[in-house]
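protien #1 (seq + structre)
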Amino acid sequence: QVQLVESGGGLVQAGGSLRLSCAASGRTFSSYAMGWFRQAPGKEREFVAAISWSGGITYYADSVKGRFTISRDNAKNTVYLQMNSLKPEDTAVYCCAANEGSITARVLAYDYWGQGTQVTVSS
């Protein structure tokens, strides 16, 4: 089992920045690929970014490419999502997830999920 707890969400103006953190506990964090997903009211959960177990490979949704950066610190059992140039359409609950397999954008491939943290971007 892996437990995931997100933090760092909040209210920010358009153009601003936030840094989300996801702290993991339980089984060996460094063996998991990690992903960030988001869900806005009335919409399906969508992929945001993913990172391989080593941190050497990253993958982004087109909607956030160039604005968001995913990273991880395996010594701290934490994965981060740096979000810059935020837009109102980025407003959503952001969740991190752990995948025992390889890096992927597929929601169903992820085995463990956090509860999420709210990000609200005002115009």
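ok now protien #2
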Amino acid sequence: QVQLVESGGGLVQAGGSLRLSCATSGRTFSSYLMGWFRQAPGKEREFVAAISWSASNTYYADSVKGRFTISRDNAKNTVYLQMNSLKPEDTAVYYCAADAQIPLGSSTRYWEYDYWGQGTQVTVSS
């Protein structure tokens, strides 16, 4: 069993930055593919970014490429999402997710992930 706890959300003006963190429990964190998703009111959960267990591979949604950076610290059992140049359309609840089985190529599919955090709200004002 893996437990995920997100933090770092908040209210920021357009053009600003936030850094989300996702702390995980369990001794096998380093073997999990980690992903970030977001969900705005009335919309489907949307893929944001993913990172392989070794951090050697990352994958981003086109809408955040060049603005967001996913990283992980396996010694701290934590994955991060650095968000720069934020836009009002980035407003959503952001979730981190973990799975030990899916390949990076399937990391955009939220239904593939076994473990989820409770989410953290990010609001970007114009």
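The CA atoms of residues 99 and 114 lie 6 Å apart.
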